[in-house]
Amino acid sequence: VDANGFSWRSGAKVEKLRLKQWFLRITDFKEALLEDLEFLAKDNCWPERVLSMQKHWLGKSQGAKVEFYVEDVAGEQLPSVGVFTTRPDTLFGVQYLALSMSHPITARMAKAVPRLQAFIDNAPNLPADSKAGFLLPGIKARSPLVKLAGPTTKVQESMP
């Protein structure tokens, strides 16, 4: 999509639509697809920018999945939040976690916090590139690198 919202291939206006669709397990075939990109690169069969986009889309990310333990102001444990990172060395500097609007913690909080429910209801009206978020009151996430005592992180609901 170009800066004006049109397809770089066809020139058609790009629209965001909700569709019922099939989901393919592309990642199960990632290695074969990456190897086939080399074949498509021969003799300039595909433009370099398309090959580059495909490589990045399929890309190989090596890292770690870590669990942040989450609790409310009463100290009640909430579902933990799994986070994938390619840079585990940055975990000491985490400032907040962003949850989707469909996350179980967000859904639970929306029942008790009308302002959060209003934010969720208004989200479809926000621009596609919006960075808007909602700070969940009274929710803390504990770093997986810290045992029982130590710094906590704010939890914020954000656009999916």
UniProtKB/TrEMBL annotation:
Pfam families: tRNA-synt_1_2. Residues 55-125 form the Leucyl-tRNA synthetase editing domain. SUPFAM superfamilies: Nucleotidylyl transferase (SSF52374), ValRS/IleRS/LeuRS editing domain (SSF50677). It comes from the Eukaryota. InterPro entries: Leu-tRNA-ligase, Leu_tRNA-synth_edit, Rossmann-like_a/b/a_fold, Val/Leu/Ile-tRNA-synth_edit. One of its GO terms (molecular function) is leucine-tRNA ligase activity. Keywords: Aminoacyl-tRNA synthetase, ATP-binding, Ligase, Nucleotide-binding, Protein biosynthesis. Its EC number is 6.1.1.4. Belongs to the class-I aminoacyl-tRNA synthetase family. This is leucine--tRNA ligase.
